[in-house]
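Subject: Phosphate ABC transporter ATP-binding protein, PhoT family

B.,
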Amino acid sequence: MTSVMTSPHPVPGAEQASIDARAVSAWFGDRKVLDRVSLLMPGGSVTALIGPSGCGKSTFLRTLNRMHELIPGASLAGEVLLSGVDIYDPTRKLTDARKQIGMVFQKPNPFPAMSIYDNVIAGLKLTGLKAGRSERDDLVEQCLTKAGLWVEVRDRLRQPGGALSGGQQQRLCIARSLAVRPKVLLMDEPCSALDPTSTRRIEQTIAELGHEVTIIIVTHNMQQAARVSQQCAFFLAEQGTPGVIVEAGPTQQIFTAPNDQRTADYVNGRFG
Ligand SMILES: Nc1ncnc2c1ncn2[C@@H]1O[C@H](COP(=O)(O)OP(=O)(O)OP(=O)(O)O)[C@@H](O)[C@H]1O
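Prediction pasted inline below.
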């Protein structure tokens, strides 16, 4: 069953960008891996995508900023509306979607030889945004502060990004994503390569950012989904069938009173 998430009320940060996936199907070659997945991800809140390995969570995430189409042989159907505007509209530039919808990956991927400062503003050059020296300084401080890293690095901004710890590198990547002022931040298991302390620090950052940037996070960690998200969507691909959303709704409901037995079994660790 494909499910449409109803908006929680009142919608936190309703003025922030919502992202609305409508009947999204995805294929790799002939193989269909997502079947008509619909999900409304409300603005200014955190939505967690959960489900067993291989059910299509990362693929779904990549359809939300047009990264799926970069994979040779990959195709998709359906619509993804960013505050009501289809990001797949052929008259829109691919780079617009990427600028507005940033992504943080599983493994921190800063430019290792580039300074911390230059890492933060790296996206400006790529997206053609121009900024003067003092504007850049302000932006670097602002983004590192939002990513929860400023205090730790303010005295060594010229050191290479690769010299930071894994958790710091991931926060640097978050700061780099924020520098192009995205409306939405996609996070694909952003803590899976990190120790528990760094994980908690990133979760704190997500909680702080979630009010101003719409966040969609894929996680295998149920406690993490419960801690950071306001909405949850449970994906499943049963017996070789394409992935679907079994159930989506407020996180508390998904964890304490889900409607579907399969959701209850998954969140209680009975499979997956
Ligand atoms: N580049 C690719 N080429 C072909 N098939 C792929 C590719 N990437 C993913 N798939 C397939 O698509 C299906 C969904 O994969 P996806 O990575 O989206 O699942 P997932 O739920 O994110 O899994 P995990 O939790 O293990 O990361 C899987 O069957 C996978 O084998």
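The longest strand covers residues 31-41.

T.
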